[in-house]
Amino acid sequence: MMFAAQFAKTIKLLIVIGMVVPVLTGCWDRLEIEERAVVLGISVDLEKPGAAKEESDVSHLKGAFPVPNQRMLRVAVQIALPGRIPLGPGEGGGGKGGSEGTVWVIDVVGHTLDDALMNLQQQVSGRLFFGHLRVIVVSEALARHGLQNLNDYLRRNPEVRRMAWMMVSKGSALEVMRAAPELERVPSLYLMSTLDNAVRLGKFPVNYVGMFWSNTSKKGQEAFLPYVEIRKEQNIQVQGMAIFTYDKMVGSTLPFDIAAYMGIKGLNPAGYRGFVPIGNNPSRTVTIYATSRKSMIKASIRNGKPYFKVSIFTEISMEEKISEQFSINSSDILKEIEDTNRKALKKACENLIEKTQKAHSDIFGFGEYVRAKLPNYWNKKVITKGAWQEMYPNVDVEVTVNTRMRRVGMKAK
Amino acid sequence: MKDERQITAIQSAAILVSTIIGVGVLALPLFAVRAAESGAPLVTAVSVLLAFVGLAVISLLGMRFPKQSITQYSEDIIGKWLGRLGSALLIGYFAILSALTAREFGEVVITSVLTRTPLEVTVIVMLLLAALATRNSVTTFAYIHHFYFPLLLFPALLIVALSLKNADGLNLQPMWGNVSWTRPELWEGLLTITALFQGSFIMTLVIPAMRRPEKALTASAWGMLIAGGLYVTIVAATVGVFGSEEIKNLLWPTLELAKGTSLPANVLERLDAAFLAVWVTAVFTTLFSSYFFTIKEASKLFRLGDHKMFSFFLLPTVYVMAMLPRSILHMYEIIENVGRIGLILTIGYPMLLWMIALVRRKRGNR
Amino acid sequence: MLRRPRKPRKTASADVQDHSLEQALEHSKDKLLGNELTSSERFFKELLGLNNDFVMRRFHVFGRYPAVMCYYANMVDQALINKDILKPFMYVPSHLEGKEFELGQLTEVLLNDAIYHSACKLERQLEALVNAILQGNTIVLVDGLYDAFLIDTRNIDKRSIDTPATEQVIRGPREGFIELLGTNISLLRYRLQTSDLRIRTMEIGRRTKSKVAVCYMEGITNPDLVAEVDKRLSKIDIDAVLDSGYLEQFIEDNHYSPFPQVQYMERPDKVAANLLEGRVAIMVDGSPMALVVPTVFNQFYQTVEDYTERFLLMSALRLARLIALMFSLVFPSLYVAIISFNPELIPTEFAVAVAGGRAGVPFPAIIEVLVIEISMEVLREATIRLPQQVGGALSIVGVLVVGQAAVSAGFASPITVVIIALTTIGSFATPAYNAALALRLLRFPLIIMAGIFGLYGVMIGLIVIANHILSLKSFGVPYMSPLVPGNFEGMKDTVVRFPFSLMRKRPSFLFPQDHTRISGQAVDEQADSKGSPLNPLKFKEERKDAEE
Fold this sequence. Notes:
The complex is a heterotrimer. Chain A is of the alpha/beta class. Helices cover about 35% and strands about 30% of the residues of chain A. In chain A, strand 10 (about 275) and strand 11 form a beta hairpin. In chain A, helix 8 crosses helix 9 and helix 10 packs across helix 11 (about 375-380). Chain C starts with 20 loop residues before the first helix and ends with a helix. Chains in contact: A-B, A-C, B-C.
C-alpha cells in the first residue's frame, strides 16, 4: 500500500519532468542583441523596370514573380554596428567623429518590400531586427505610386513600432539614408531627432507612422507625412508636408504651410516666425513668433453642403524689428501688428485649404467633424471615404483669426 | 467544511474582476468597433449591463441555495438526471472555454513576442500553470485572485492614462456610431462582448464558500462595475487614439495601444512586450478560474471529495481541444460562435433554474 | 541521521549489547539509592567512571561518616565546591561544636545548619542523580543515608552578551541573545517585567535533553496557538537538538518550500515586541536564536529600527528594502529577457550601446549571467567561511579584480557585471537572512525561464512563486497577511508604518485576546493637552513686567 503510493508519486513526478524537460531544452526565440542586425532606418525607392537584373534568385526564380508589371523597389537599410558606438559618453568618439563608422548602409532591389528584405537578409549575417526601426524614408516617386505594400508589411510585422517617423524625400530616399550628418553619432537617430525636435519647437505636428496609418484609415480625413530634402551639409530639411489621398501622395506644401496647418488644428507648441510689415510698409517690418494657438472648428450644414467655421486664436511675441526708425512703445502699434498678422495668417490658412481642396485631400479632418457632429448628414450623403474626397473641394470653410500680442522682449521701444 | 467558508465580499468581487479581465481585452475593441464603429464604448457598456443581468440571476440563485453550488442545486430544482445533464454541459463548456483561453493567449504570444516558439509550448505552459494552481483549496483560490487583482488594474489603467494624450475626442463621436442599430453585426458583436464576461459564472462556485453569502449580489455588482468599467475605458481609449476605422485593421488593438505608448522619459520605449508579460497574470487568473470551475464541479458531479486528481487528469483533453482550431482566424470564428452559444448555458440556463425554483418554491437550507 | 527510525524508549531491556549511558539509565529507571555507600559508589563508577573528567572524591562528614562527592570536573565551579561544599561537610558548624549527632539527625543538620548553598536538595532517584551530574551538578553520597545531596554547582563558560551580529541597528538596544537559555530568559524577563509573561520549558532530544522554552504573553496570545506550538513540539523525537534551527524544521508547515515559515531572531527586544503582538517565541538551550511563530512575509523586510525612528523616514526605508528584495529576485532575469528577447523595449541609443558592449562576449547572455551569478555566490560563501581579517579583503579584491578582469578578458560585458553587482547588493539589504537566501535561490530558475521564454517566462516563474507564497500558511496564518486576506488594521504596518497614534490595535490576523495596543483615549488627550511652556511670547511679557 505504502509502496504503491510511493510508486504512483514517482510516476507522476516522471510524467511532469517528462513534460517539462522538452520545454526547457528549447530556446526558440533567444537571439542575443549583438547577433541581431539592428535596423535603425529604412529607405524605399522606386526603381526603374530594368533593375530586376540586379536581383539574385533568393525568393523566386528570375522572371517568375507573380505580379509581372510591378515596379521594382530599391530598399536600403541602416544597420547599427555594435562595437562602433561606444558605451556611454567619453571615449573620444572612437576614431572618426562622423557617422561613417557607426552604421552600415546597404541597398538591394526587390519586387516587394519583403522580397527586397529577403534579398538583403541573404547578404547580412545577423537576423534583421526591426524593433528599433525609427525612420522610414520613402521617395516621392514611390509615395505618388502608392504605399499600400509598405504599410501592409510594416503593420503586420510585430517588431515595428508605431512611434517611428515616416517621411517622404524629395528625390532619392537612398541619399537620405546615406547622408552622414556630423552632429549625431548615428544618422538615423539624427533624422529622428530632427523631426522630434521640430515637434518640440513647434515646427511640425506630431505625426508618427502610427498616426499616419490612423489618418489614412479614417473616413473623413487624409494623411500627410513630412516632406524632407537633403541640403548641402548632409543635413535634412523639412520642406513641408506631403499630402495624401488614401495612401498615394498627391501633392506637397511649403514649410510655411505647416504653420497654417498647425494653426487650423490648434496644435501646440507653436514655433513659426512671421514677418509683419506694419501698415504694409516694408521698411517697418517686425518679426514675430507664435507662442500658443487655439482653434475651434464648427461644422454645420448650409445649402445642403457642409460648412465649416474655423476660429483660430494665436498668441504672438515680438522677436525683432529691422530698423531703429520706428519704435514699438505703445499698445496701439501692437494692435496694428496684431491686425496685420491676423490678415496674413488668415490668408495663409485659406491658401492651404484651397490647395488641399484642389488635391481632394482633407488633411485637416473636416470630414471627421461631419461624421462626428452631423452623423445624420454623413450617413445619408457621405458614408464612404471616396464620397468625402469628392465632396471636400466643394465645401466652404470660413476662417477667422484672432491674435493677441503679449510680449515684446526686454527692450522698451 | 468549516474552514472553507472564508471568502469575504471584497475577495469575491476581486475574483470576479480578475476572472473576467483576461485575454479577451486584447481583441475587445476590434469586436466592439466591428459592431458599432465609434459607438464601441456604448456597445460595450450595454454588454456589461446584459452580462450583469446574467450575473445577478446567478447571485440570486446562489443566495437562495447558499450552501450548494450549481451542480448540487440544479439537481434539487429540475430533478436528478436533468440537473446532471445541465451540469455536465456546463463542465464541458468551461473546459472548452479554458482551452480557448489558453489557445488565444498562445496565439497572441507567438504572434507578437515569441515568433519562433511553437504554439504547442506556449499553450502547454499556460495550461500547466493553471493546472498546478488548481491543486489548491477554494480559500487559496480566493487569495490568489485577491493578490493579482491590483496587478491587473494597474497596467491597464497605466496604458490608458499614458495614451490619453494621443486621444482625439472626435474619434468617439457620434456616441452611437455611424451605423444603424438594427443591423445583425451589431447584435452579434453585442453578444460576443457579453460572452467575454462569462467568467463571472465562477460566482456559482464562490458563493458556497463565502463567509456571508447574502452579500453575493453586492459583490457581483462591484465586480461587474470594476471589470465593466475597465472594459469600457479600454475600448474608449483605444477608439479615441486610433479611430474606429484603423482598429478594423488591427488584430489586437489593445496590444497596439501598448505598442504606441512609451513611459515618460523613455525608460521603456514601447510597452507591448512588457504589457503582454504583465498580462500573463490576467490570462492566468481567467484560465485558473475556468479550469478550477471545470475540475471542481466535475468532482462534485462525480461525488468525489477531492478535486486534485482531476487537475492533471483533464489536462490532455483540454490541450487537445485547444489545438483543434486550424488557424488564428479560425480560432476567432470559433471563439465568437462558441461564446454566443455559451450564453444560453451561462445566462439562459441559470435563469431557467431560477424561475423554476421560484415556481416550485425550492430553497436551500441556510 | 535524523531519519533513523526511533527505538521505543520505554523498553530498554532489549538491546543488551549497547552499553551506552542511556541504556544503563533505562535499567536503573525508577530505582532508588541504597544506603550502602560502597554499592552506590560502584554504581556511579561503573556508569560514569570511564570518563576522565569524572571526579569521585572520598571524605568524611564531620570526620566520622564516610562520604563520596561526584561531579564532572569541567562543568563545575571548583572554588565553590571547595569552600561552600567540602568545607561545611567536613567541619561541624561552630555553633554546634561538641554536640553528638545520630546518623538519623545528620541529614537535617547538614541541610539546615551546615551547607552554605541555596540550591541544595535531597534526591534518591538514581536516574535523576545521574542526570544532575551530567548537567554539571554535584552530588554527595553519605554512607548510611538513603538520600543524596544534590547541589547546583554548574558553571559553564559563556561568552558575554554582545551586539547581535545578524541584526545590527543604529538606534535601539545593543543586546543580543547568547547560547545559555538561562541568560536569554533573563534578558527577556528584564524587558517584559510582567506576570503575564509565561515561560514553559520542556526537554527535547533523546540524547541531548536540550531545554526548550516556549514563551508567550498570557492574555494576549491566542491560547489555541500556544496549544498548537506545544503539540508540534511534543511530537518531535530526535536524538539531538543542537540549535533552534533543528526545531524550526519540525514545526514549520511546509517542509519543501524555500520560504521560511518561522522567523528567527537574535534580539531580545524584537522577541519582546513579537510576544506583545501575540506571537509565541521558542528558545533552545545552546542556541542564540529564538524562533518566533507564526511568521508572515511582511516581517522579512522589517527591522526593529522601523519602530524606534520616525515613521515617515522608516516607511521610505522599508519601501527601499522591499524594492531591493524584488530587485534581487528579478533583476538578472529581466536583464536576460530584455537582452536576448526584447531589445526593442530599451531606448535605441542604449540598445545599440549594449550591443556594442556585448559584441566580443562569446556566450549568450543567460550563460554569462549564470556564470557570473554563480561565481558571485561562491565569492559570498568564501567570505563567510574565511576569517574576518581575510574576508573583508577578499570580498573587495574579488569583486574588483575578478569583475574588471572578466570584462577586459572579454568574458563578460560590463553591463552584466553592473547588473549582478546591483543584485548582490540588493540581496544584502534584506534584513532576514533566511528570506534573502530563498530569493537568492529562486533567482536561478527565473534566469533559466528568462533564457527560454523571455519576459513571458519571467512572468510565468513569478506567477508560480506568487501562487506558492499565497498557498503557504504559518500556523494557519496566510503567509501574505495582512495583504491577502485584506486586513486594514494589519496593513497599517506593512510597507508603510503608520504612526503609533494610528496603530492602536494589535494585528488581528494573529487573533489576540486583547486587541488594544495603545489606548486611543490617552492618545487623544495627549494630543489636546500638549502645552508650550517655553513659548517666547510668554517670556517677552514676563520680561516686560519685570522691567516695569
